[in-house]
Amino acid sequence: MLKFENINASIAGTPILRDVNLNVEKGTMVGLIGRNGAGKTTSLRTVMGLLKPTSGQVIIDGQDMTVEGAYERAALHVGYMPEDRRLVPDLTVEENILVPAWANEIPNLTSRLAWIYELMPEVEAFSSRRALQLSGGQQKLVALARALMSGSHLLLLDEPFEGVAPALSRRLASVLHTLKDEGLTVLLSESDYTHSADLLDAGYRIERGSVTPIEQH
């Protein structure tokens, strides 16, 4: 579903990713584990086309997307949950969730929204509230819901548990377990295995922009 082939990427002339090779098989949940500043967010932004690599290839669902624009990912049903949530504060929760559907003219938005609310009924409960009225953990749930609107094949989650209270962390983990059971392909970044150890099928460790597979025991 997702493959990095010898990816190098720089920001303002500073090398960030160094010859990264990474493979996420369809229907699996894979972790990208590393400390802050190791290159996790840069990796996910490169998948999304928000940062163009200086060399190498980004393959999504068999298609070379290396030089394609970020908006082209929508047609491949890729969803992205950034670490800082990036909700529109003055829009309601439901409007934030529907933004990808409006922007990309997703045809089945009504049934997709109903599925998201079934998955996360607490989000439906505050769907009429403005995003700025939510706690940080609630905003994480909304950001996940928005990513799921377009991410029916591949989901990218950047530090989903970061800064979230323990109760909401457990709830997020429960939702991710359900998504895994439904066969969604997920690439999840985290600083350690605190929340994701029993979720992941495989993992990669990233350090100073270099990635190595983590041996599974």
TrEMBL record:
SMART domains in UniProt: AAA
Signal peptide positions on this chain: none
Domain ABC transporter: 2-216
InterPro entries the UniProt entry points to: AAA+_ATPase, ABC_transporter-like_ATP-bd, ABC_transporter-like_CS, BCAA_Transport_ATP-bd_LivF, P-loop_NTPase
PROSITE patterns documented for this protein: ABC_TRANSPORTER_1 (PS00211), ABC_TRANSPORTER_2 (PS50893)
Coiled coil: none
Gene Ontology MF terms in the entry: ATP binding; ATP hydrolysis activity; branched-chain amino acid transmembrane transporter activity
Domain of life: Bacteria
Record keyword Nucleotidyltransferase present: no
UniProt GO BP: L-amino acid transport
Entry keyword Nucleotide-binding: yes
Keywords, alphabetical: Amino-acid transport, ATP-binding, Nucleotide-binding, Transport
Gene3D superfamilies to which the protein is assigned, alphabetical: P-loop containing nucleotide triphosphate hydrolases
Family, as annotated: Belongs to the ABC transporter superfamily.
Protein name listed in UniProt: Branched-chain amino acid transport ATP-binding protein LivF
Protein source organism: Marinobacterium lacunae
